[in-house]
Design a protein that fits this description.
heterodimer; A: mainly alpha; Arp2/3 complex 21 kDa subunit ARPC3; globular; B: mainly alpha; 2 domains; two-stranded antiparallel ribbon; 9 helices; 71% helix; flat
Chain lengths: 187, 263
């Protein structure tokens, strides 16, 4: 997406994804009894649809949280959340969105998956690093508490995100066949 | 389901105030809250904020958020109990000597909860009593780039819409006899039927919105506010009172520290 050419569209998409990220920490998806924030899901969705510009809605989301709007997990908000033990994960959203977005701009599937994996690694690196730093846990302990339990869930969310992105890309290609479909067809 | 964080049209104290005054108000409350380490004083600030909400006729809307804040406080207290055990041990969460409940951790947890409650409530009062267009005008005058202003506003407007829509889509799917199955795979499958329409709708809505913004001449960069807000007597009075409170508070908390440092 060209930011200069589609300025108003980028603004509207940014607003939508920021809201989706915020709603992702509230919406309770039925039949999912496990504590499950959908933030990573929407992070990857934003990356899949906006490419590297997914950084903008993610940053705006964090900014809104810092301004005390209750948009973080379970309705928390404020700068205190960034300084708390889980703040690293929030800060890690930004590199994660960037890496996954860059990965998703590439055509081959492998590159997209590699981008998402790199994004997840960046997220865990920030999260675990800050967890260990802020609570004084050893790095292994922080890894065991702060990354390992979330790996299956996050892989699941990444898989769902790529599934949903593909279907939405197909839907949009069908809906706007005269504009986007043309670009997709090899010359 | 009531809409969260949306402007509510009433004729209260805050609705008559200039948005700039309200921003100053929440900034002062924020500074006071962050600098206070005293639980009774924080309770006093919380009470003052609730009284202000009552004066602004939005107390009922604020109290609806209380369940959320209570849930949050339980989480905060649990986190502080686990991560920062300090002071005397009062008891154990798990019988047999695991997870000690300590006075220091309880104190820190209550402190954190009160702070968050005050900040969230004050911000909420601000958002639900300010017309979005006034908010944008004021932020623009304060020097925030209009693009980011607009993104912020759109995001704020989209949050409740999406919540309601997700619920509606889920009900529609149930009405069509959708049964996602159980287990790990069933959970993955249950996400897609709600998420695909939700994200797709949100995106097409955003696309229409983007086109509309363009059609209304957003790129000409020439905007005239529909209604010019001016500071009136009430605003000036509130600003003077707030400035006095802020100065008095800073004098009361910061100066003694310098005094000790010098002495």
């Amino acid at each position: 997406m060209n930011l200069r050419r589609y300025r108003a569209l980028s603004i509207a998409h940014t607003g939508a994804f920021t809201a989706l990220l915020a709603a992702g920490s509230w919406i309770s998806i039925p039949f999912v009894p496990v504590p499950f924030t959908l933030q990573t899901l929407f992070l990857f969705l934003a990356a899949g649809i906006m490419g590297r510009y997914a950084v903008v809605p993610v940053s705006l989301y964090l900014l809104m949280g810092a301004m005390n709007l209750p948009v973080f997990h379970s309705g928390t908000a404020g700068i205190g959340v960034f300084l708390g033990p889980t703040g690293g994960y929030l800060a890690g959203f930004i590199p994660a969105a960037l890496l996954a977005g860059i990965g998703y701009e590439c055509r081959p599937r492998v590159a997209r998956y590699a981008g998402m994996a790199a994004g997840l690694c960046a997220l865990y690196a920030c999260g675990v690093g800050w967890l260990s730093l802020s609570t004084g846990l050893s790095l292994e302990m922080a890894l065991l508490l702060g990354a390992v339990p979330f790996i299956p869930g996050d892989i699941m969310k990444a898989a769902v995100a790529s599934l949903v992105t593909d279907r939405i890309a197909r839907l949009r290609a069908g809906k706007h066949a005269d504009t986007e479909g043309e670009e997709r067809r090899p010359a | 389901m009531s809409e969260i964080l949306q402007y509510i049209h009433k004729d209260g104290l805050f609705h008559r105030m200039h948005p700039g005054t309200k921003i100053f108000l929440i900034l002062v409350i924020g500074v006071l809250t962050i600098l206070t380490l005293d639980i009774p004083l924080l309770c006093l600030i919380l009470l003052a904020v609730l009284l202000l909400a009552l004066a602004g006729k939005v107390l009922r809307e604020v109290l609806q958020q209380m369940a959320l804040i209570l849930a949050m406080s339980v989480i905060f207290i649990l986190i502080t109990l686990i991560t920062m055990p300090e002071g005397e041990v009062l008891g154990y969460l798990i019988p047999g000597g695991f997870l000690p409940v300590t006075t220091g951790a309880l104190y820190a947890g209550v402190l954190l909860t009160l702070r968050f409650a005050i900040l969230i409530i004050s911000f909420q009062v601000f958002v639900i009593t300010t017309q979005p267009r006034d908010l944008v005008n004021t932020l623009e005058k304060a020097g925030v780039p209009i693009d980011y202003n607009l993104m912020f506003l759109i995001a704020l407007r989209f949050i409740p819409t999406l919540q309601i829509e997700a619920k509606r889509i889920h009900e529609a799917q149930l009405a069509r006899g959708y049964a996602p199955g159980t287990g790990f795979v069933g959970r993955i499958r249950s996400v897609a039927p709600v998420m695909v329409p939700l994200v797709s709708n949100a995106l097409s809505r955003a696309t229409v919105l983007g086109l509309t913004i363009d059609m209304r001449g957003y790129r000409t960069r020439a905007r005239t506010p529909f209604r010019e807000e001016r500071m009136n007597l009430l605003d000036r009075a509130v600003i003077v009172i707030l400035a006095t409170v802020l100065v008095a508070f800073l004098a009361g908390t910061i100066l003694p520290h310098f005094g000790y440092a010098l002495g």
